[in-house]
Structures are given as C-alpha cells and as structure tokens.
Specification:
The structure is a single chain. This protein is an alpha/beta fold. Helix 20 crosses helix 23. The relative contact order is 0.11. It starts with a helix and ends in a 9-residue tail after the last helix. It has a seven-stranded mixed β-sheet, sandwiched between helices. Among the domains are: 92 residues, Gyrase A, domain 2 (2-Layer Sandwich), CATH 3.30.1360.70; 60 residues, no CATH class; 167 residues, Isoleucyl-tRNA Synthetase, Domain 1 (Orthogonal Bundle). Helix content is 50%, strand content 12%. The protein is globular, with a radius of gyration of 28 Å. A hairpin with an 8-residue loop joins strand 1 and strand 2.
C-alpha cells in the first residue's frame, strides 16, 4: 500500500541520518528519533522540518545552529526533495512539487477504494465490544455514542488490516432485566409500540414500584431463578430480552451499525465459563475463598496485591474486591474476567451459535450464542477493545490487573478500555432508570434523534439554493441526517462530554458532516461528464499555491488512518476531513478547473483524487457519501 506522506518523510529521514553518519559519527541518532523531531514549518521555510540538531547539540555540547548547517550541507538529495537548508537550528526540506504531486495522484488512482488503508495490523485478530446496552430499553443517545464509536473504531482497524470481530455483550442476567421481567409479569400492560421503547417505559414504571412492600425482594428472587439457567423463568426472561435486542437492532440498522456476534450472559452461565475461569484462578492462588469473617464464602481478590503491582491503581477505600458473592452469584467484574479469558483463548470456546438476524445492512448475518446450534470460530484474539463509558474505569483497571496477577502481562497490555464521556441533548438529560431518555416534550432515543434530524435536514434541503437536486430530497435528507449525527458524535475526543446541538450539527458551512458531504458532492459535480486522465506526462501546471497545499494533504491520508487507529481516536479523521474540505474550497475558488487552460487535466485529477479520499475517509467513519445535492 502506497503512503506518499510516509515516503516523503522516509526520504528526509534517510537524508538526515546519512548526514549525521558522515558529519557526527559519535552521535547515535536513531531513525525513530528523527521521525519524532519532524514538523511542518511555515510555507516560506520549506515543506518539512527536523529539530534533530538540538538533540545532537545537547549531547555534543555544541551550537544547534552550526550542527543544522552541517547536516543540511551534508544531506544528499532524494526523489521528492529539491534542496535542504538550515534555519535557526532547524533542518528544512523543500519538496519538488511536480514529482511529489505525480506520486500522490498516481497512488490515489492506483489504489482506488484502498488508498487510505494501511497494512499496520497485518491480519491480527481483534474484538471490538460495543455497545452492550441492557436488553430492557431503547438506545438513548448515550448508547448511540457508544455504538458509533465502536462501529468507527472497527472500521478504522479494518482499514489498517486488522481482522475485526464486532461483538455485542448482552447482559440479560442483570438486575435491570430482572426488574423489567417482573414488570412484564405483574403490570399487565401489552406492547403497543416498538418493543424496546415499550419495555423501557415499563422499566421506568417498575422503578417507581420498587418502593412498594415486597417488590424488591420479589425481583431479587426472580433474578436467582433466571440465573439457574434452565428454569421456566430463565427461558421466558431470555425470550423477552431477545425481543428487545431485535428492536434495538432495528435502531442499529437505521444508523448502518452492524455486528458479527451477540454473546449472552445467560449463555456464559450455561457454558459454565465462570466455573472454568475461577477454577484456574483458585488453583493458582490469584483469588481465594474466605472461610470466616465479613466475606465468609465469598471469592475475593486482595486489592493490596494489585496496588503493589500497579502503582497508579486507584481504588475506593476497600481492601478486597468481591468477585463471587456468598450465595454463589457473580459480580460484573467476575463475569468480565471469565469473558476476557475466553476472548483471549485461555478458555476453550464451548458456545453453540445460531443466526439471530439473517441479513444485516452489510449483507452478513448476525450470529448469537445459543443453547443449541453449531460451533464457530469466534474469540481467540490478540487484542480486545472495550467501548465503555468512563464511569467503568475502576472495574476495567481491576480486569487488566487480574491478568497481570495471572502472569499474563501480554494480555493485560492488549485490553484497551476506550472510555467516553456522557452525552446530553440541548434541553434534557439521559437517566434510563428515571426515564430521562424520554425527555421533556421530546423522546431522546436514538430513533427519535434520527427522525427529528431527518425532518430538520429535509427542510434545509427543500429551501436551500445550494442544493439543486430537489427530486431526491428525502433520500438526501436521510443520508445527510445520519452523516450529521455520526460526525457530530465522532468529532469530539472520546473522553470529552457532548451536548448535541442541531444548529451546530446541521451547519453546511461549519466543521460538520454536512459540510464534508456537500464538499464531496461539489467535487463530483465538477467531474460530471468529464474524462479524467489516469496519468499525466506533464505536471508543469502544478504551482506552489492552493493546488500543492491540497495535494500535500491528500498525500497524508494513509498516515491519518494509521494515527487514528493507533490512538483509537475518530476525531483524528474528522479533523483531517475538515482540513481537507477547507483546502479544497480554497483551491476550487481561486484556481479554475474546467477553465484551467493547460492545467485543466491536472486540476481535474486533483478534484478526482480529493473526491476519492473524501469518500474513503467518510466511509471509515461509517458515513455514506451523496454524489448529488
């Protein structure tokens, strides 16, 4: 896979490394150090710069300015670099705009559909777990953020050649599900709307009833029967949960979010995954069963052992963490430990699998763990990414520490907690237990967010003079609404909180999804009925104006994908897209394309390449482009 930006950096690094070897043999400067020293200087000072002279000067106790001058003088030229100069201790390189433009544009043309990809993952298998919503309510927009992050992270990792398994963990044995099941059996109401919405509203009502005498104990007794795994109650609760998940996946489909497999907590219990995991942990002294005192008959882990091993471990004022309660029921952390031992192949996969949904938006089925079915090749991965909100930081730290105690540092280092902040919408909060997702005069579910956004976009499409394709207004509104929501959620660094604003998200001239989608449509409109040359012999039309600035950005796309994947940050891609769209607008408005004279063919290639990169990068975010607006 060709990565022009990386090729340019490698040439510059090699030139500096060679000059260091010739002029400062005593300096041991690694290529990685030179890479970290690179930056983009002011346009008049070059195209790429290195501060490595300061590193050498500090070690040699010499003037960095003199060292930079020697490095520049001794650096040999390369294919893309015309000259190398020193300035105030920095080593700056000037790029041959014609040669580099040729490399960038031909790389994009030759790699269409895959240009912005990377081979970084080399086929390593990874699980991305998301969104793991309790099966007793609709997705609210907090859940939606989880789902969109998980989908985009999966796309990014696939673009970097990882083999991604998209997994959704269904906690159908939690107290929330038991409460909803109690309501289903006792409140007497019948589904009169989308099943997850109805069940969520009933869950809010149940929480009001918990204050009534005996109700809380009835719910706890019901949960114990559900955890038996073979009782009538457990089977009926599973059926109820499956109906809810099917409704939730209608929401997922609306946002073009899909998964490979559902793993049900009730199937983990039936497969005795916990028994197998804790047998190993007890035998190896990682955990212990207390025989007396406050935690009698509980299986616990001594947190002091974790504190000694992980110096940055912060915990509440407890000395131990209960993993299995005295009545034999497992805590969330205990289940997660067993689940991750399965993920990484420490426990054999004894699950049966069946088909939950025959065909999703991507054309593939959604599989599910089941009581009966066939064996399949899931789990046994090299890396696990868990998209879980930042309130779960403590349990995730314990999870990783448990693998350290097992002597499996290799696994602990490959468990990634992608923590994200809370989500609000202008005018409301999102407490599921209290029904905050229902909002005040408006339902803040993921479904209703899309419906309202689509309605607002349709009004814009119908009234905007910029959008000429009125015949396809509804289809355009649907696509733009989805793109607007996704971009707004993904452009914010995951750890930060979000307050969703329609005015901000639907701005066609701001840092938004609609702006990027409109830029793509604008580029394709220029290309309509134009014959694009696959290659050019003459790049003399390339200048050092907005055309070359745009080309340099296009050359960076594969590295942007790698950086976003390495850092698990979707906002790296959204930031790049905004910069690319802004650069394209400057280019288009100042440098005529169809009336570009001798530069016409070259500029058409630049427009075509821009459209290609916009399409590829938006696709990585899960945003479908619209060619006509």
């Amino acid at each position: 896979m060709s990565a022009p930006g990386k090729d340019l950096k490698n040439e510059f690094i090699a030139a500096i490394k060679g000059s260091v070897s010739r002029n400062f043999k005593e300096s041991d400067v690694a290529e990685e150090e030179i890479l970290l020293s690179l930056s983009i200087p002011k346009p008049d000072n070059g195209d790429i710069s290195s501060s490595i002279s300061f590193r050498i000067a500090k070690a040699a106790k010499k003037n960095p300015k003199e060292i930079a001058e020697k490095l520049a003088a001794g650096a040999k030229g390369a294919r893309f670099i015309t000259r190398i100069e020193a300035l105030n201790g920095y080593v700056n390189a000037f790029v041959d705009e014609r040669e580099y433009a040729k490399h960038v544009l031909e790389s994009i043309e030759g790699g269409k559909g895959e240009y912005a990809r990377s081979d970084m993952g080399r086929g390593a298998k990874v699980i991305v777990e998301s969104p793991s919503v309790n099966p007793n309510k609709p997705w609210h927009i907090g859940h939606l953020r989880n789902a969109l992050l998980g989908d985009a992270i999966s796309n990014m990792m696939e673009a970097c050649s990882f083999k991604v398994e998209r997994e959704d963990y269904i906690d159908d044995l939690g107290m929330q599900v038991a409460e909803s099941f109690w309501g289903y059996m006792n409140l007497g109401s019948k589904p009169d709307k989308k099943f997850d919405t109805w069940l969520g509203e009933q869950y809010v009502e149940v929480n009001k009833r918990l204050k009534e005498k005996g109700v809380e104990q009835q719910v706890k007794s019901l949960l114990e029967k559900m955890e038996e795994g073979s009782s009538k109650e457990s089977n009926e609760a599973r059926r109820l949960s499956e109906e809810c998940v099917k409704a939730q996946y209608q929401t997922a489909s609306g946002y073009s979010v899909y998964h490979d497999v559902l793993v049900w907590e009730s199937d983990i219990v039936r497969a005795k995954l916990l028994d197998k995991a804790f047998s190993i942990l007890l035998e190896n002294g990682i955990v212990k069963k207390e025989t007396s005192g406050e935690y009698k008959d509980c299986i616990i882990v001594d947190l002091e052992r974790i504190r000694q091993m992980a110096k940055d471990f912060e915990s509440p004022s407890e000395d131990v963490k209960v993993l299995i309660r005295s009545n034999g029921t497992a805590t969330y952390v205990a289940k997660d430990i067993a689940f991750h031992m399965w993920k990484f192949g420490m426990l054999s996969d004894t699950f049966n699998y069946g088909i939950f949904i025959g065909k999703q938006q991507n054309g593939k089925p959604l599989y599910t763990t089941a009581q009966s079915g066939e064996r399949m090749d899931f789990a046994n991965v090299k890396k696990a990414v868990n998209v879980i909100d930042n309130r779960q930081r403590y349990p995730q730290l314990i999870l990783k520490s448990m693998f350290m105690l097992m002597g499996r540092k290799d696994i602990a280092e490959q468990i990634m907690h992608l923590s994200y902040g809370k989500v609000d919408v202008e005018g409301g909060t999102l407490s599921g237990r209290e029904g905050g997702w229902m909002g005040s005069g408006r339902s803040y579910t993921a479904d209703s967010l899309l419906e309202e956004t689509e309605r607002k976009v349709l009004e814009i499409v119908k009234s905007s003079e910029k959008i000429s394709d009125k015949e396809n207004a509804k289809a355009i509104a649907r696509s733009v609404a989805i793109g607007a929501i996704k971009f707004e959620f993904l452009k914010i660094a995951p750890e930060k909180n979000i307050t969703f604003s329609w005015a901000r998200a639907l701005n066609f001239e701001g840092n938004t999804g609609p702006y990027c989608m409109y830029t793509y449509a604008r580029a394709t409109k220029i290309l309509r009925n134009q014959e694009i040359r696959k290659s050019l012999k003459d790049y003399n039309g390339m200048t050092r104006k907005h055309d070359f600035g745009l080309v340099k950005l296009l050359g960076n796309a594969p590295e942007v994908t790698e950086k976003a994947c390495s850092e698990y940050r979707t906002n790296v891609i959204t930031d790049y897209l905004i910069e690319l769209c802004t650069a394209f607008s400057r280019f288009y408005e100042t440098m005529p394309v169809l009336k570009g004279g001798s530069a016409r063919e070259l500029r058409l290639m630049i427009v075509d390449s821009t459209a290609e990169v916009l399409n590829e990068m938006l696709t990585v975010l899960g945003i479908a482009t619209v060619s006509s607006m």
